[in-house]
């Protein structure tokens, strides 16, 4: 069974997960034997520590890789943008995915001016006045 199929099978045992996005080397098709599983998930509420640990353990056991699990309810920019730009949805409706995209666009519009200012100040400090 494919990695995506295994992920879907594991997520079926966790009905509170409404959206899952595979990202990183497995999504890009560049995974090595020692690559971890990068998975971003959204439930109806932010994951509790117990739910997070249970899902990580279940995924690691069935996928056979270390798991980097991101809770989409808590992730911010710029990681959210990277997940959406380079990830592959493995579970969830178009509507749920669109809600996440909308949040990203609004968050990015709020965050981008600060990030750009910080980067400009760092460039100026590095290059000099």
Descriptive overview:
There is one protein chain. By secondary structure, the chain is an alpha+beta fold. The protein has one domain (3-128): Beta Polymerase, domain 2 (2-Layer Sandwich). Helices cover 55% and strands 18% of the residues. The protein has helices spanning 3-12, 25-28, 49-63, 79-86, 94-127; strands at residues 17-23, 37-43, 67-71, 88-91. It has a 4-stranded mixed sheet with strand order 3-2-1-4, with helices on both faces. Helix 3 links the parallel strand 2 and strand 3. Helix 1 runs antiparallel to helix 3. The termini are far apart. The mean pLDDT is 94.
Strand order of the largest sheet: 3-2-1-4
Q: Give the class-level CATH name.
A: Alpha Beta
Radius of gyration: 17 Å
Structural class: alpha+beta
| CATH architecture tag | 2-Layer Sandwich
Distance between the termini: 58 Å
Q: What's the number of domains?
A: 1
Task: Tally the helices.
Answer: 5
Beta fraction: 15-25%
CATH topology: Beta Polymerase, domain 2
What labels would you give this structure?
four-stranded mixed β-sheet, globular, 5 helices, alpha+beta, 55% helix, Beta Polymerase, domain 2, 129 residues
In short:
The protein is built from five helices and four strands, in the order H-E-H-E-H-E-H-E-H. The chain has 129 residues and is of the alpha+beta class.
């Amino acid at each position: 069974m494919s990695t995506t199929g295994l992920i879907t099978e594991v997520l079926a045992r966790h009905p509170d997960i409404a959206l899952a996005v595979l990202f990183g080397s497995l999504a890009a098709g560049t995974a090595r034997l020692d690559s971890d599983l990068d998975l971003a998930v959204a439930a109806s509420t932010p994951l509790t520590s117990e739910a997070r640990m249970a899902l990580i353990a279940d995924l690691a056991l069935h996928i056979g890789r270390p798991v980097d699990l991101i809770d989409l309810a808590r992730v911010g920019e710029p990681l959210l943008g990277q997940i959406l730009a380079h990830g592959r949805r493995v579970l969830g409706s178009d509507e749920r995915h669109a809600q996440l995209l909308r949040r990203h666009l609004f968050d990015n519009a709020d965050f981008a001016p600060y990030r750009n200012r910080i980067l400009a100040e760092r460039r100026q400090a590095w290059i000099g006045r």
